[in-house]
Queue: 4 jobs
Job 1
Amino acid sequence: QEKLVESGGGSVQAGGSLRLSCVASNRRACMGWFRQAPGKEREGVAGIDTRDRSNYADSVKGRFTISRDNAKNTLYLQMTNLKPDDTGIYYCAAGDGLYCDRFASYRYWGQGTQVTVSS
């Protein structure tokens, strides 16, 4: 059994910042963030392994920072310089895949938290 709970979503103006958190019930090799905009497919945002090695989608590089606290089983996503295209539901995910930059590595999912960026 696995439980992931996201928090920190909200509404901000373009250029603003938000910090998302995800508390997991177990430690996993990979933790990551995905997002889904209305009418669009879910896409990977960022992933991180237990050694704090991270990867990012090209669209968020330089603006978002992923981090994790292994002792607390907690994942974070610091989002800066937010754009309207960042709007969507952000999902926390975890898994035991070898590579944390691919969808197949993630097995467990949270319920999501809404992020809305206005122009």
Job 2
Amino acid sequence: QVHVAESGGGLVQPGGSLRLSCLVSGDLFSNYDMAWYRQAPGYEREFLASNIRSYSEIADSVKGRFTISRDNSQNTVYLQMNSLKPEDSAVYYCNAQYFGVGYWGQGTQVTVSS
């Protein structure tokens, strides 16, 4: 069973930055397609960024503020979030896909507030 664990969330002031981490268990991490999503109360889960075969894609809604990166030696994918806004407040989820099978973490809460 693959285990996915997000970390790095918390409370940050508007304009601040956070870096989220997502650790994936197992030996096949370099083969996983990785992505970040978020979900705010009352809203559907929203795609933010993906890293597939070293190709990265960022959603238009966060382009220029969020970046995705991965360290295969650490089985970890990161989401760097800059210039955070109150509307970025949500639970942030990591998704790992391997041959069409997806695994989700429990999520990490990000709250942007003064």
Job 3
Amino acid sequence: QVQLVESGGGLVQPGGSLRLSCAASGFTVSSSFMSWYRQAPGKEREVVATITSAGGITNYADSVKGRFTISRDNAKNTVYLQMNSLKPEDTAVYYCSAYSLRIGNSWGQGTQVTVST
């Protein structure tokens, strides 16, 4: 069955780093359009980063460009979000999503990232 499981969230100080993981099963991430979203309390969901199935082309929200990196490990069937120079405004629940013609759109359960002193 199609499943996405996020992990790696937690509490970090401003300027710190976290690496989020999105472990996929039931499909291959290399054949899917993968995205990271986040949603802060009282705010709308926003796209943070994306990576295409063919070519691995990446795109980022302006707010995280230069600080975050999306990548995938095809052997592990896992997508990552490396987050550096974290700011309090990065605090949110981060979600992994996948899309392909075969499976449609799928979402993980989310992982909490809190940036605070």
Job 4
Amino acid sequence: QVQLVESGGGLVQAGGSLRLSCAASGRTFSSYNMGWFRQAPGKERDFVAAISRSGGSTNYADSVKGRFTISRDNAKNTGYLQMNSLKPEDTAVYYCAADRGVGINSAYSAYAYWGQGTQVTVSS
């Protein structure tokens, strides 16, 4: 199993940047694909980005392409989500997730392990 803890959320003005971190416990972080999802009040949890075990493959939701960058440092057991040019519609609780499937996945149901979430609020 792996335990995930997100950090780095906060309040930022539109156009600003934040970097979220996802710290993983255990020695097998590199065995997991990693994803970021977000959930706004009253809405479903939506896919944001995913990265493969080695970091060699990534995938992004259309709404964040060109603004967000997912990355990972397996030596530090940590994943990241760099968010630039933030918009009010990016406001949500952001969750990282881990999955031991074959390829990176944008489906919520594919991820077995989840962090507790970190709030991101973008003011206009």
